[in-house]
Specification:
alpha/beta, two-stranded antiparallel ribbon, 256 residues, single chain, globular
């Protein structure tokens, strides 16, 4: 990848290059951890791909050079359609991380449309394949990493149990770990101290997800914390309005 990353510094995953601040997609899917009312509001707001496109476009204009998406369902298709339109409109094609399940090969066309460079095994699957008594993964985990590599993607994983799963992943072909890191330790399991300790020691690239704890932390406090953590290589943040993009990414520009 030869493209410069605009406002934000870059980080590399093998030979793939991304900005250290990535755009997430949870709001676009009509999903909120805060309340059903917020979920319904997101569903209405992003019922048309044009609303998603406007936010992706603004993120690109503000220097974002990477996005995190997932497969499955018509809303994921809408997000990729919006991403394609935003890239065409800005003249900037950005790479993506895509959260996948064991059936990711069935979504190969979607991954290619989204310029997927890294696949991240869904956190629920990663955590379900972890055998606590053995501090290791079931054989299916290695097989899924190998399948992603053979398909031409860099293999990675999401997890909500980083304190235990990240050390176990050291011996596997896992290039990236995507896991919650935030100031109030929301969903950092088993505990903040253990998570930060293993992330400091891992050989994997670390993406901090849920930096705002799904709206529980003000943007300035959230981004100051996560972007200054030495254990973190990059962060991904979901954005629900153009104004939120301007505020959050504007803050990030002064922190990375």
């Amino acid at each position: 990848m030869e493209e410069e990353c605009g406002v934000f510094p870059r980080f590399e995953v093998e030979d793939r290059v991304f900005s250290k601040v990535l755009l997430g997609h949870n709001p676009f899917l009509g999903f909120s951890y805060l309340s059903q009312a917020r979920t319904k509001e997101y569903e209405r707001r992003f019922s048309e791909a044009a609303a998603i496109e406007a936010i992706i476009t603004r993120a690109i204009e503000l220097g974002v050079r990477g996005m995190m998406l997932s497969t499955g369902g018509t809303k994921c298709e809408d997000v990729v359609t919006a991403l394609e339109a935003a890239c065409k409109g800005t003249g900037v094609t950005i790479p993506s991380f895509i959260i996948v399940g064991p059936d990711f090969q069935e979504h190969r066309a979607l991954l290619e449309r989204a310029n997927c460079q890294v696949t991240l095994l869904h956190g629920q699957r990663t955590d379900a394949l972890f055998i606590k008594a053995q501090s290791d993964f079931q054989p299916e985990f290695a097989a899924l990493m190998e399948e992603a590599r053979r398909a031409g993607f860099v293999p990675g994983m999401s997890t909500h149990n980083a304190g235990e799963t990240v050390p176990a992943a050291e011996k596997y072909d896992v290039a990236v770990v995507n896991t919650p890191v935030n100031r109030i330790t929301w969903r950092m399991c088993p505990c903040e101290e253990q998570v930060l300790e293993v992330l400091a020691r891992t050989s994997k690239k670390v993406i901090a997800m849920k930096p705002l704890a799904m709206g529980r932390i003000p943007p300035r406090e959230a981004m100051q914390y996560v972007l200054r953590r030495p254990e973190v290589d990059a962060t991904v943040v979901g954005i629900a309005t153009v104004e939120e993009a301007e505020e959050t990414f504007g803050l990030c520009a002064g922190l990375v």
